[in-house]
Amino acid sequence: MFYRFDQLWTACPPEQKKEREEGLFLWLEGEREALPPSLQGIALPEQKRIHFCKVETVKDCFVGTMAIPDEEGHRQQMAFAFSSQSLVLEGKTALLKSCIEKLEDDAPTECATPARMFCHFLSTLIEGEPELLERMEDRAAALETAVLSGGSLKRFDQKMLAHRKRVMNLAHYYLQLADCLGTLRENVPHLLDEEDVRLMSLLSERVGRMREETQMLREYLMQIQEVYQGQIGIRQNEIMKLLTIVTVVFLPLTLLVGWYGMNFAFMPELTWKWGYPVVIGIAVAIVLILILWFKKKKFW
After folding, report:
1. What distance in Å separates the CA atoms of residue 71 and residue 86, rounded to the nearest whole number?
2. Which of 86, 68, 24 is nearest to 177 (CA)?
3. What is d(CA 116, CA 118) in angstroms, rounded to the nearest whole number?
4. What is the maximum alpha-carbon separation in the chain?
5. What phi and psi values does residue 44 have, to the nearest 5 degrees?
């Protein structure tokens, strides 16, 4: 689908796509019939070759790519280019389409320059990031609660790895986006006016705060990992304590059995009428005394 901005983003008939005029354009399906005159000779990267965010200055134009990670860790690619007269956005993602729908209500109808429109597009693009970080933090908190409550720790490593990968992808995305905003703020082709530079500065501050949030989330995940290791250590200690108690209880009984298992000819207990009941009584008494001693010392 091909769109053009004229107070609102509106779909253009197929025959208008070949008109090489200046303006604000959007390709949702990767169609590249004709760029405006001010962007002629600009090669937009192919979607499948976009892996990160970057901005370059080419022939008095800004040309760049964006790879935006979603909540599941998948990347949505788009390319853009804008000059003093035209803006072109290209992508096949649902995210780009939703941003355009939001811009229909919030886009500036006055001074709708390509640079100003791109500033508002970036603002719309990142407006949902705080909620995304909050949801990821809630997932991490739920994982920590499961660990501390003594629940099942199965597949913890896989879950933690998935969380860390998502946070790492977001951290890289925010870092790359901050670099892009820095390049735009340098305004080498002088495409941005003072208001555009101010908007870019505000966006850069927002991205910086979100990057700090991802850093805090990474540290939180590391703390959860440490809690998990501590819980494993506690459970191992409980198992070792149980094995130690069992060993201490049966050690005297093993000694008793070994003592009377010796094949000496003269052992009076072997021929005594009450020898067997007495040995059983001694074994039971040893077990009870040891259990009471463990209870008193709070070992069990």
Report:
1. 32
2. 68
3. 5
4. 118
5. -75, 135
Are the C-beta atoms of residues 58 and 44 closer than 8 Å to each other?
A: no
Q: Above 70 in pLDDT, residue 128?
A: yes
Six-digit token string for 233: 């250590």
pLDDT band at 172 (very low <50, low <70, confident <90, very high): very high
Amino acid identity of residue 64, one-letter, is G
Residue recorded with tokens 């229909």: 104
Task: Tell me the C-alpha distance between 162 and 71, whole Å.
Answer: 11
Lowest mean pLDDT across 26-40, 136-150, 174-188, 280-294: 26-40
- Worst-scoring range by mean pLDDT, 57-61, 68-72, 174-178, 262-266? 262-266
Confidence of residue 174 (pLDDT cuts 50, 70, 90): very high
- pLDDT over 90 (residue 149): no
C-beta separation of 188 from 197 below 8 A: no
pLDDT confidence of residue 209: 93
